[in-house]
Design brief:
The protein has about 100 residues and is mostly helical. The chain is about 80% helix and about 5% strand. The chain has a two-stranded antiparallel sheet. β1 and β2 form a beta hairpin.
Length: about 100
């Protein structure tokens, strides 16, 4: 009689007792955990024989080299723009005299 008073959870039109629901959730979490563990093992075994495409150190060097190149390029263009503007101002001042 006590079991009839307990309120079962309704799930997809079936009466599912909380113990069954907890067992189902635990089963799904265990499956997800096993899949994550297998993926981790596969990655480690794969990169044991295959060289990784890049590493954090390589990315750091590539990014620093790119920023240095861009900074130098911008500095050169800024210097040229300054020189050309100075020349234009001189020629404009000479024509105004």
């Amino acid at each position: 009689m006590f079991l009839a008073i307990a309120t079962p959870l309704m799930w997809l039109g079936q009466c599912v007792m909380p113990i069954k629901l907890l067992r189902w959730v635990a089963n799904k979490l265990l499956i997800v955990l096993i899949i994550m563990l297998l993926l981790s093992v596969v990655m480690v075994v794969l990169f044991r024989w295959v060289n990784p495409p890049t590493s954090a150190i390589m990315l750091q060097h590539w990014i620093s080299a790119a920023t240095k190149y861009l900074t130098k390029s911008i500095q050169k263009r800024t210097n040229l723009a300054l020189i050309y503007s100075h020349r234009q101002r001189k020629s404009h001042d000479e024509t105004m005299v």
